[in-house]
Amino acid sequence: MKFFFVAATAAVLLPIYGVGASGQVGTPATPRVGAPTTTPLGPPAPELRSVPLSRREGPLPQSLTLQQALEEAEARAPAVIAGRARVEAAQARIRQAGFRSNPELSLEVENFAGTGELSGFRGTETTLAVNQRLDLGGRRRSRVAAAEAELAAEQLRLSIARADLARSVREQFARAVSARERLRIAAQNEQWARDLASIAVTLVEEGREPPLRALRARSAAAQAGAELQAAQAEEAAARGTLAGLFGVTEPPTVVAGSEIDLTPQTFDPERSLEVRLAEAERLRAEAEVDREVSASRLDPAVGLGVRHVRQSGDVALVGGVSMPIPIFDRNQGGIAAARANVRAAEANLVNARASARVRGRNAITNLEAAQARAEALADAAVPEAAEALRLAQISYREGRASLLELLDAQEALRAVETALVEARLAQALATAELGRSSAQ
Question: 372-380: long-range contacts (C-beta < 8 A, 24 or more apart)?
Fold first, then answer.
């Protein structure tokens, strides 16, 4: 009789757990990431390049190009690694959202330790049952839809982190290149000043220049030396700041490449990452409303079991249905809060669109101004200042120009070359900002 009771219980329970003919136990409604059970919400997320979850270790290349800097940042930056982990967490939440609620196994023992015929365990009735809550209100579907919307938003946040990182690398690389060029100009100017001071001392000793000229030349050489030291410190600091973007302390020995990245960008404010993220957040908020509404719906629970009567040895099936009564809690507050979040997300979307347009227009204006200034300096100002210095050097050697005139010509060339470096830096920074605004 005991064997019959166990066999009957198994006949009831095994179909519920999905045991097939092969004896394998199935898990009902196990979702797979990449095969959603509902239509995905939100704008298409950008294609994600493979990023390792562990950071690249070790020193940076001694000679670092812009392309290498971008690749190193992608592999080393903690912000990208963290963003990738958040995407994987969102994918795991989709899997979790797709599971049905677990069945409940209950065991009831009745009619024992009583009086008369029910004394001891002679009249015992034992019931083994399984209860399963049914998802008639669409809770699982709404959970999966909300999790998919959150995944789309996390993927866009990861793309934003990558775009921000790329902009920072481009900007700091441009500053390092500019610092390197200013160091070159300072070294050249310091060499000229030292040579000129030596010549001035010789001319004073020969009586061809007054002592004041030698003093002026030595003062100019000392000033050029101080400017060279400042340029060296600035260049080292720029390389150190660049290395800090990768999470390392040892900077590269030199930044390679003579040109700053000036790749043209096409700007579409409606496709900017911030606008797409705001749209994804709005759709996620709408999915949250659906989830809160589904939480207020009634989901009955059904049960099926086997009862064994000890006195007669008989076995029978038992069944039941239970349902909550929504008298007090109908999730009113949760639904109201979710709808308020939709209104907030819609306002954020409007703001994101306006900000994207303004940001893009400002970047284009700054880029055009920087390009015009750099072209004017490179095409006219620098060549003219270089020619003026060449003529001043010839005139000084021939005795037709004074030392002060030669020093003024050298200073003019140094100033205009420095202005060109600054203009090209502004051009690179504006290009990096436009590239960030155009990132999709």
Answer: 373/423, 373/426, 374/420, 374/423, 374/424, 374/426, 374/427, 377/416, 377/419, 377/420, 377/423, 378/420
